[in-house]
Amino acid sequence: MTSTLAPKSLPRRAPRSRSPRHRWTAERVIFTTLNTTFLLALATLMVYPLLNTLAISLNDGMDAVRGGIGIWPRVFSLKNYEVVLNMNTIYQAFFMSVLKTVVVVATNLFFTSMLAYALSRKEFIFRRPITLIFVLTLYFDAGLIPNYLLIKDLGMLNSFQAYWVPVIISAFNLIILRTYMKSIPEEITESARVDGAGEFRTWWQIIMPLCKPALAVVGLFVAVGSWNAWLDTLLYNSGDQALSTLQYELQKLLASSMNAGANSANVAGNAASVGSGGQLTTPIALRSAITMVAAVPILLVYPFLQKHFVSGLMIGSVKG
Question: Average pLDDT of 105-133?
């Protein structure tokens, strides 16, 4: 005998009520509108100088003296970039700047993170006095002349070592990495020791991969500082053209154009004949082109580190 089983009727679900946090109340609409307007205005203030500089660099130098250029060039011209890129030493200086930045970032991250790991260990009894010594360097600086005399006495004038040895460890970066490493659970390092890993292996294979966000923040800080620096070349390596950096060469070009513009009678004393080809441009347009040439490499690198930047900066600065 067969029996037919009637399908049971399922109870009808009650309609979901929208959570109070998803309801668009008048107060929330006003807050969202004001917040969005404020952020858009702030973003505009941040982006406009860059777009304005780009527009001036792409504008004819003689026309740029008139002013009134917004975010779009009035008289399009690549003459300013021709002046910059026609420099005989620009490409060798660019290579030296890249090499300098890579070496400075690599050595700074290596030694600063190693010291930060040691100072983050509770079993290291001298961690507090050593940390205090490095913190004091943030408030007291020896000065320009003592630093120059130190580099001279060490025999590092007109040598590549003058670029990276003085900045091998940064106190500010040390604090960020030390604070971030202290937030890592001690059970991780203890389990590594149980498995037979030494301190160096624990730091290199376990701690360093966990510190990628903080390392990205520190690496970006060091890279920007090293890339934009030209005073170290002027002080330590100005006697060797092979060690000249991009920023130093651009600074010399800008200074020469400003001097030529001050001594010229063209366009109310603002025109300058600069460059190997004798192209006629103006200091304001040339300065904008130099700024863009110097800023492009950093602008290209930043998007790749952006995902680590915020998290590394917040965790490394807040937790302790």
Answer: 92
